[in-house]
Amino acid sequence: MARATIRERLRYWFDNTMAKGTVALIGWLGLASLALILTVSALTLWLTPDEVFEHAGLPGVLWMTLMRALSPGKIASDSGTTPFLALMLVVSLGGIFIVSTLVGVLSSGLKGKIEELRKGRSRIIESGHTVILGWSEQVFTMVGELVKAQASQRGSVIAILADRDKPGMEEAIRTKVGDIGRTRLVCRTGRPTEPADLDLMSLETARSVVVLSPQSDDPDAHVIKTLLALAKRDIDHLPVVAALTSSRNMAAARLAGGPGVHLVDSDDTASRLIVQSSRQSGMSVVCMDLLNFDGGEIYLRPEPSLAGLTYGEALSAYRTSTVIGLRSAGKVVLNPPSDTVIAADDEIILIADDDSLIRLGDPAVPVEEDRIVATAHERPGPERTLLLGWNGRAAQIVRYLDGYVPEGSTIDVAGDHPAAASDLTGLARLTVNTKECDITDRYALESLGTGLYQHVIVLSDSRYDAHHADTRTLMTLLQLRDIQSTFGERYSIVSEMYDENNRALAEVARADDIVISDTVIGLLLAQLAENPRLSDVFGYLFDSKGSELYPRPVEDYVVIGEPVRFATVIESARRRGETAIGYRLAAGINEPPRYGVVLNPDKARPIAFAPDDAVIVLAER
């Protein structure tokens, strides 16, 4: 290999210097200006001594040359000998080149700095902030709910790190979420899987971290890699909540995140909610009400003063809160047996509109014994369910439904999806049939004999993008409602949709329940970000084992048509081994946003129930 020449070495050194950026360029221009001024000043001293005398010697010449270099227009007022004017012209031309280059360098450097600031690459200096890692449609629901939850807190901050443009993230949130009040939103551009980018979020002083499942191929792999990056940091005190799309990756994610991570199985949670809603009209509304921060929320509260009392006696202990269960020795039980004795270190699980409203009532609201009814619930017989459409979570939905329905029940899967009704072996109570049809076609739906079914589930087709899939779902809902109206048929309809914006359109089709999977997961993540201990409570609530939410006919509990306190409803439910948490008025079923659902009502306020009203209870099947 040939030895480098001096010229090559100098050029290499010069290139390395220039690569240092704007400061180096300005330095070279400064040296060029200094060389130009000194050279012209020296030539002026040598060639035009008379002009030097007129301009106060060397200091005057240096100043005059500097001014011509910085402001070339000054040459127009110069006079003197030809050599003097020629030298001033040279320095002015050199100044034009240097100044114009300097302006370009400064402009380019300033533009680069602004772009760097827009990308959000500076470390945030906050404490007690909520960190969201990743980006998906759930982020809008999460930010909106966290803003509500932290509305009473001064200086609350939500920090988001995602591999997206910072201004784009801020604009999207402003558009979809709207006013965020006193909460400050801080966005940073970076990859949540990169330790250097995680350094930007000040995780050591954060309140909690939420890892979102990104909208990309194999999203769970990104979540698990992010959990590994978080596990490498010394933040064991920091609650971490993560959303996964597949149950198969839960074990790997738990191993990556450690025992302290709280995992949300998106498909599993949405599937369970769809199944519960399909069998009990209005259950999605009840669950959404418990998940959001608008009305009643679930709290865990130690109450040593209730130690020694039974769970049944504790049901009447709060006037503005509704007791729903106990957390004992780290184990959550909703609607435990009425004679369960409360220990001093047990926590009461209850529903309240705000934690500031949780206080023991004294005295207890009296029960109206003459209004209590003891009608036995009818045991349901075999059911027929129609499943329209197919997607990745459909098989899971069928399996969960198999755990709810009575023996001898049937589910018919209708659609044109090539994978429909596949991988459904091992069902205990359900018989599965498949029917080929276009679920958006009116005559094809009529041929299914929809009037033979008690429940209809409409799933979004995974072969289409979210917008098109929701459009097809809306078409199916409208066709079903028209068939119901024409033939006088009666069956419940629960629909799955992707986009929350399509809910208002679906309400025109009057579906009994609409489950927006991304919204449900976003709400659940927001709840766990505020209180990770609620993970066990919601896990119990969505499980088919133990007590679940049911709307039951109000006439099975109290007399209808006469004013009755809700405390009386609670007592009637207690005698059945159930916990009443609210009611649903038939007159408001089609009135958003509550759809007739009232949770955690005032126990002393009388209400006259009407036929078709329902009591919402936690009960065993």
TrEMBL record:
Keywords: Ion channel, Ion transport, Membrane, Transmembrane, Transmembrane helix, Transport
Keyword set includes Ion transport: yes
InterPro entries per the UniProt record, alphabetical: CASTOR/POLLUX/SYM8-like, CASTOR/POLLUX/SYM8_dom, NAD(P)-bd_dom_sf, RCK_C, RCK_C_sf
Keyword Ion transport assigned: yes
Mode of membrane association: Multi-pass membrane protein
SUPFAM superfamilies: NAD(P)-binding Rossmann-fold domains (SSF51735), TrkA C-terminal domain-like (SSF116726)
Transmembrane residue ranges: 21-46, 52-71, 83-106
RCK C-terminal domain sequence ranges: 283-366
Compartment(s): Endomembrane system
Principal cellular location given in the protein's record: membrane
Protein name (Swiss-Prot/TrEMBL): Potassium transporter TrkA
